[in-house]
Amino acid sequence: MFGIAKWTFAGASGAGYTMRVKGMRNALPSVPAVYVCAYLHPKGHLAGHVAEPVFIGATDDLAATMQDHPAVECLRYECANCVCWLECDASDERQRIVDDLEKVHPAKC
């Protein structure tokens, strides 16, 4: 996606969560993860890019969740064009990260 393979989102705690990035139509791994569906776009001439979170969630299987996402219509409406994910095995840790991210990045869907 724009040649960007990783993106870091900051949480309210000050922690940075570096996630892998793929386009919405790309195959994703079947892994437990925290994920952010985002609108990733250029910020301006030579100014880099910005990733605007559209949906933040946690899943036991990223590939399965994205195949039949419950907010698919909203993701389309809000122009989500990439999935960013951080593999995380522990469900309580995934939820803690989601909560931390949502405090800073109010998702639209």
Name a few traits of the molecule.
109 residues, alpha+beta, 3 helices, 5 strands, 24% helix
Task: Describe it.
The protein has helices spanning 62-67, 72-77, 91-104, and strands at residues 6-10, 16-23, 33-42, 49-59, 82-87. It is an alpha+beta fold and 109 residues long. It has one domain. Strands 1-2-5-3-4 form a five-stranded antiparallel sheet. The mean pLDDT is 92.
* Beta-strand content estimate: 35-45%
- Characterize the main sheet: 5 strands, antiparallel
Global outline: globular
Q: How helical, in percent, are the residues?
A: 10-25%
Alpha-beta classification: alpha+beta
CA radius of gyration: 13 Å
Number of helices: 3
Question: Layout of helices and strands, plus pairs?
Answer:
Blueprint: E1 6-10, E2 16-23, E3 33-42, E4 49-59, H1 62-67, H2 72-77, E5 82-87, H3 91-104
Antiparallel strand pairs: 1-2, 2-5, 3-4, 3-5
